[in-house]
């Protein structure tokens, strides 16, 4: 094997591709620090003009602080809800026996196959009749329940050893205790993977928040940003600053939790 | 052999000893209750309602009347729907180019002894975790006909680039490039996981038979990876058919969007659904549009399952 001959050409290809992946973000950051006239100069300057006030302007144009908080609360609520509810259901489907278990699991799974747009109009009606339009509940509550999460965690629970559980049962522990003190700690990698995926999807979600919350100060970041670009199409430096701030938190989480992120995606992709 | 048989016997003995008690069944129902009720109220019942709504017409104040298949008749004759379906199919079909690209990059990253894999992987993954709205906005800027970086770079080599997303000739291709750019990292990670699951012995055997690295890629890696590729193609097609965020941000909506000369080349089925359901409040018609989308997704998924016999190898 010619271990030494191979890499150079490979590195050239991979480096070029990586540049294509990263360069747009660099250009976004550079543009976000330019004046409008600097950004529209031809030929363009590759250097920023350090106009930090573009970032302040985002907060003037939009209730950006509110939207940031809305997004954090929504994402945290959905993550907490799904991790709890999905793990409960997944544990029951994997480890408890009750009449109709397989049938019910099939019904849960059927939700996975339906494109989400089919839920939207009736969900909107529900929110409207509860008086929940333009509220945090509207963007959190439907996201507390997920067939995907149940499916993902059930795979984890099925893979856990039975011995501990049986020992606990012999000691007189009931299902609740076994779930809480034995299964949950053991399934931690699965719970983390689900939490990360839910965070990613919630943070980036556009359609549902756009539909239910139309008051600017009840919007999430992605909906607020989409609305901002509709109104201020020309001020690209400000738009670039806004979109950088909005996507940065998840990118930061990704950089810190890379391995769990990648494992989460890889798990979501395996058919298990 | 006997060991597994024995294990099976003990497990059967355990199961027999541990008859499902009434409390266990009760707790089973309690544990699935929150998600079960949530899915029923917010997901299962809504599907049926949407199906029902697709046979109704909505008045100005939210009431609706049964109109039978009128919405579907209107849908079939609506040129806007036809265009949106064709655009969505074009985006879906062209986007499939991203799959072989992801395989090639995954294969390069999988080379033994390659350094810097973590750095490359991070670069590919960055667009996957970035907010789609931000991605769309960023590319809208890159594609800008006058000041966009894409045309500035082209100008360096003497090419006068078009106004990418406002030119009917280029808009769809420009969109597909963004779609591939933002999903390639996701596909790559799954292919990489698939490649690492291929048994080393297969490569050793192929090597003994005199197959070089390229030959090994085509006769071992690709066939062994075909189930993963099948999974990715199912997921990509379903996802592409639901395209919304990118187009919504790139074209905007309403009057401003219609001012874009390439609008009719970009509008997707879900975007049309959004407009009918929540901008013009034509919810019965919107319901018919998503039911049609469901049928389209089902048809293409069944088609792919039919075709898989020709190219997917299961061990």
UniProtKB/TrEMBL annotation, chain A:
It is a multi-pass membrane protein. Residues 68-257 form the ABC transmembrane type-1 domain. The chain crosses the membrane at residues 12-30, 68-91, 103-124, 136-157, 178-203, 238-257. It is found in: Cell membrane. Its main location: membrane. SUPFAM superfamilies: MetI-like. Keywords: Cell membrane, Membrane, Sugar transport, Transmembrane, Transmembrane helix, Transport. Gene3D superfamilies: MetI-like (1.10.3720.10). Belongs to the binding-protein-dependent transport system permease family. PANTHER family: ABC TRANSPORTER PERMEASE PROTEIN MG189-RELATED, ABC TRANSPORTER PERMEASE PROTEIN MG189-RELATED-RELATED. This is Multiple sugar transport system permease protein. The lineage of its organism: Bacteria, Bacillati, Actinomycetota, Actinomycetes, Streptosporangiales.
TrEMBL record, chain B:
The keyword Ligase does not apply. It is a multi-pass membrane protein. Residues 88-304 form the ABC transmembrane type-1 domain. The chain crosses the membrane at residues 26-45, 89-111, 123-142, 171-193, 222-244, 284-303. It is found in: Cell membrane. Keywords: Cell membrane, Membrane, Sugar transport, Transmembrane, Transmembrane helix, Transport. Belongs to the binding-protein-dependent transport system permease family. This is Multiple sugar transport system permease protein.
